[in-house]
Specification:
By secondary structure, the protein is α/β, with parallel strands linked by helices. Helix content is 35%, strand content 20%. Helix 1 links the parallel strand 3 and strand 4. It starts with a strand and ends with a helix. Pfam families: Response_reg.
Length: 168
């Protein structure tokens, strides 16, 4: 199916390797190498999934890797910050309701002040998210909300749309 392994190397140059201290909680998933026809170029896009529910994180990772994305999965705000400092993904799927001292809202604020990465926010608390998105005046291209619970096909469609039209 797909490979899933804990990352155990130090910070890299543009790759998704992460700090050794957090290696047991950060997972990188990708499909085995697929043949790319000659004469075509394809950039494999990287997605950071920040989700504290292990079952949901696994489902999200599996569907995204099955469709050719490299997925880094973390389960807390602290690990999200570590992953983001190591390598900038093409998109972040971010649960706002995270355990620990750094919540999803803080991760989102940090992302918005340091990078222009598309973020797909997932949470069951829809009112606050909608107000935040409206107040920011951002396009749904760079900041969107997917209310929980949601079908995995909806997640996949939203991710594809955001990556297809997001500024590079």
């Amino acid at each position: 199916m797909h490979e899933q392994e804990a990352v155990d190397t130090g910070p890299g140059n543009g790759d998704m390797s992460l700090l050794q201290g957090a290696a047991h909680e950060i997972h990188v998933s990708q499909h085995p190498t697929q043949e790319i026809p000659e004469g075509t170029s394809r950039t494999i896009q990287r997605i950071l999934v920040v989700e504290d529910d292990p079952t949901l994180a696994t489902l999200e990772s599996e569907i995204l890797t099955a469709h050719g994305y490299i997925v880094v999965t973390v389960h807390s705000g602290e690990l999200a910050i570590t992953a983001l400092r190591s390598a900038i993904p093409d998109l972040v799927v971010l649960d706002l309701e995270l355990p620990g001292s750094i919540k999803g809202w803080e991760v989102l604020q940090m992302l918005r002040t340091t990078a222009s990465i598309p973020v797909l926010v997932t949470t069951s608390a829809t009112t606050a998210v909608r107000q935040y998105i409206r107040s920011r005046g951002e396009s749904r291209i760079t900041l969107d909300h997917l209310p929980k619970p949601y079908p995995m096909q909806t997640l996949l469609k939203r991710v594809k749309r955001m990556l297809m039209i997001a500024p590079q």
